[in-house]
Amino acid sequence: MLIRKALPVLVFLSASIATAQYEMKVAQGYTPKIGLMVSMLEDLKARITAEVKDLNQSEIDFEFDEKANSIGALVMHLVATEAYYQVETLENRKWTDEEAESWGIGSNLGEDSRREFKEKPIQYYLNLWDDLRLKTLEGLKNKDDDWFASEIDKGINHHWVWYHVMEHQANHMGQIALVKNRLPD
């Protein structure tokens, strides 16, 4: 009985090891610690993109109750959050008034984002994320592991901030999966 239950896991692991598709490597062009973080960020973005790229408009805009966020709003939230930390860490500044206006609603999930992020195809959000991610990747190429370990504020270093961006994306990837599971048949 135990062998029968473990067999699918063993087959999965064997296939993964044989194809080496589940391995984190330092992204080329980056210092070692930043390169690992870049690999993880890119992996999460690819997985989220794969989950949403084929959704139709009603699926992108679907809210399963009056307090739920749509998949479109959740993806926009991921983009806006990365935009905030990109400016904060890579450019060492706060959002300008124009940036706050542009990204602000997306950075805060809630009534405003539920109202604002409707009737936009998923590619709209994914294109914004692609453009923003290119800027993030270029900014990280210009940094090194000493910068990554340096503090931005007492007890908060750049590494933690980008780890937080990554964990934030993973958290909302779970929310996106929940919304997809609640889509009407």
Kindly describe this structure.
The chain has 185 residues and is mainly alpha-helical. It has one domain (24-182): Four Helix Bundle (Hemerythrin (Met), subunit A). Helices cover 71% and strands 3% of the residues. The protein contains 9 helices and 2 strands, in the order ααααααααββα. A two-stranded antiparallel sheet has the order 1-2. The two termini are 35 Å apart. The model is unreliable at 7-13 (pLDDT under 50).
Distance between the termini: 35 Å
Radius of gyration: 19 Å
Q: Could you name the ranges where pLDDT drops below 50 across 5 or more consecutive residues?
A: 7-13
Briefly note the CATH topology name: Four Helix Bundle (Hemerythrin (Met), subunit A)
The largest sheet is: 2 strands, antiparallel
The total number of structural domains is 1
Summed up, the helix count is 9
Strand order of the largest sheet: 1-2
Please bin the fraction of helical residues: over 70%
Question: Could you tell me the strand content as a percent range?
Answer: under 5%
Q: Which helices and strands occur, and which strands form pairs?
A:
Elements: H1 2-19, H2 32-52, H3 57-61, H4 71-90, H5 97-107, H6 111-116, H7 122-141, H8 145-149, E1 151-153, E2 156-157, H9 158-182
Antiparallel strand pairs: 1-2
